[in-house]
Specification:
6 helices, alpha/beta, five-stranded parallel beta sheet
Amino acid sequence: MKRRGLLLDRDGVINIDRGYVGKREQFEFMPGLFDFLRRAQDLGYRLAILTNQSGVARGMYTVADYEKLTGWMLGELAKEGIAIDLVLACFEHPEGTVPEFTRESFWCKPNPGMVLEAVQRLNLDPTRSVFIGDQERDMVAARGGGIGLCVQFGKDVKAGDFSSVLGKLK
């Protein structure tokens, strides 16, 4: 049986978006996030983070920097009782300066590649799943992947924003 998924953008949803967050000292969790994710887990949602990380293509930080930060982030979430089932990142961008990552990618939102990959790998029913992002490109990717509920946060996310989504999770 296919499961429900809660797919989340990283910068602007998991953490405060300070632009190209690639180091621990730049990273701050969003207020209300931990309670929200615990509740979603309790409701049976599989949790996934899908993030464009064009800072790698732009030479602002490395894949190793990203992986170190992601490991720390997952550890902090685990301390709060939150198990993330999948993290997908797209490092490519056509305007990059690092040749290895300077190209178009089907995974780069607004393309639906990461959404489709998460649906397949986590055995999700996309029509019963939710995507939360903070950019229109997140919504385009989610709709392209057939996600049933797409929620776009504004620039100033507050704990109440997560609370309003909880009412939509069943």
